Automatic annotation (TrEMBL):
Coiled-coil parts of chain: none
Superkingdom, natural source: Eukaryota
Keyword Endoplasmic reticulum set for record: yes
GO BP terms: organic acid metabolic process; xenobiotic metabolic process
Predominant location category: endoplasmic reticulum
Annotated Gene Ontology cellular component terms: endoplasmic reticulum membrane
Originating organism: Allacma fusca
Subcellular location: Endoplasmic reticulum membrane; Microsome membrane
A Pfam family recorded for this sequence: p450
Protein name: Cytochrome P450
InterPro entries: Cyt_P450, Cyt_P450_CS, Cytochrome_P450_fam2
Membrane-topology descriptor: Peripheral membrane protein
Keyword set, alphabetical order: Endoplasmic reticulum, Heme, Iron, Membrane, Metal-binding, Microsome, Monooxygenase, Oxidoreductase
Amino acid sequence: MLLTNHEIKAQVRLKSRNFNVLVYGPIFSVQLGHLRTVVLNDLKLIKEAYKMPEFMGRPPQAVFERASDKKGIGFVSGPDVFEQRNFFVKCARQFCYNDRGHFESKIQDEISHVLSKIGENVNQPCKMEHFFSIPTINALWSFLVGERFEHSDPKIKHLVKCASDYLSMDGIAAKLGYFVTVAAKLFPDFTGLTKQLKGGFSVYGFIDQEWKKGCSSRVPGQPRNYKEAWMDKFETASTNSSFHPSRNYFPATLGDILLAAVETTAATIDWAVIYLAMNPEHQKKLQDELDSVVGNRDLLALDDRPQLPYMEAVIHEVLRISSLGAFGLLHYTTEDCQFQGFSIPDKTCIIGNLYAVHHDPEIWESPQVFRPERFLDESNALINTEKIVPFSTGKRYCIGESIARDELFLFIANIFYKFNLICTENKPDLNPCQGVTSPPKPYEVIFIRRQN
Ligand code: HEM
C-alpha cells in the first residue's frame, strides 16, 4: 500500500473520532513501496524507540545516497554519523555559545537587514517566498565558514532553490519516486528524481567549492569557525576517521547541515507570520508583552527571553501546529529487535509521527486551532512543553535545535515588535508543501509599521 503523508497523519484524528474503520492506534506497520515500515503515533513510544541503538539507522534512499555519495550526517547510518554529530555540537558550543554575544550580534545584523527590507514594502501586499531563507542561513554561515552572503547574490538565491527542490516531495509522482525506487529509475523526469538530484548535486557541489577555496587567513590550531576547526581535524585524523582526507566527508556533512537548516528555521518563521497575521488577537497580546519589556532599546535580545512567556508560548504553538518535520527524518533498524512485544526485523523503516503527537486530540483540545495559551498556566508559567518534540528526540535528535531556537526567538520577536501584520484577501493556504519538511506555499501579507 502507498499511503500519502496526509493519510498517515490522518490516522491520529481517525483514532479519536470513534471511527471503527482505519483505526491504526499508537503503533502499526505498513508497506511504503519497497520499505517495510513501522509507524509510531505516540510520544512515549517514539521516545523509547529513538533511545534504542537498533533504531538509529537511516533507510537507503536512492536520491539522497546518490547526491551525497553515502556520506554526511542526515541520511546515513553508522559510527561516522556520531563522529560528525559530536564534532558539530562541540563546535557550536565553542563558536556560538562560549561567546554568545558575538553569535547573537550576527543574528541581529541579519534581522536589521530583514527589518529594513520589510520597511521598504509596508502598506501593500508583500509576496513571501523564501523571504527568511538567506538571513537565517547567513547567521549560521558566519559560524560555519566565517562569511555571509549578500541578500541579492544570485548564487545563494539559486542554492536556496536547489535545496528546496532536493527536499521536495510534492505530488504523487514524487512520492512514488521516493518509495518505489524502480519507478524513480524508470521515470526520473516524471517522478521528479532528475530535479531532486540536480538540486542535491548543486548543494553538495557548492560546499565542495567552499572547501577548495581554503582559508588564507587561517592560523592552524586556532580555529575561528567550523570550517577551520575541520581543517585542523583533517590534518591530524587517523585513516579510519571520517575526517581523514581520503574519506572526503566535508561536502556531504556541511551540505546536510545547510539543507537541514535552510528549509526549517526560515519556514517556521513563515508559519509564525502566517498564524499571527491570521489571529490578530494573539498578535496584539504578543506585541503588548514585547512593548512591556523592550524599554528604550531598538531591538529585542536573547536576555529578554525569560521576561517573555507569551512569546515562548507562541514559538511552542507555531512549532506544534506547523510540525515542520512531520515525520522527522526516517529511522531504520540496523538489526532484528524486540519493541513493545513486537519483533521488528532488521532493515525496517521507522516513522516517528511527530505530527500525530502534536495534533492528538486526546492531548490537545482543538488541535487545529492556533492557541499559544495552551502552553501557559494561570500564573503565566510555561507548561506542556515536554509534550511536543519538534526537533525529535533520542540519539539522532536535531543538532541545530539551540541555534534554531535562538533564531526563531530573535526574528519573530523583532518583526512583531516593529510591524503589525495583516492578511490580504488572498489568505495564506494552511496546507503545506510536501517534502522532507512542510514549509508553507508562497503567500502574501501586509506589513504596517508600528509607532514605537
Ligand atoms: C525550526 C527549525 C528546525 C526544526 C523543526 C528541525 C527539526 C529536525 C528534525 C525533526 C530532525 C530529525 C531527527 C530524527 O531523525 O529523529 C532534524 C535533524 C537534523 N537537523 Fe534539524 N531542525 C531545525 C533546524 C536545524 C538547524 C538550524 C540545523 C543546523 C544547524 C539543523 C540540523 C539538523 C541535522 C544535521 C539533522 C540530522 C541529524 C542526524 O541525522 O543525526 N536543524 N531536525
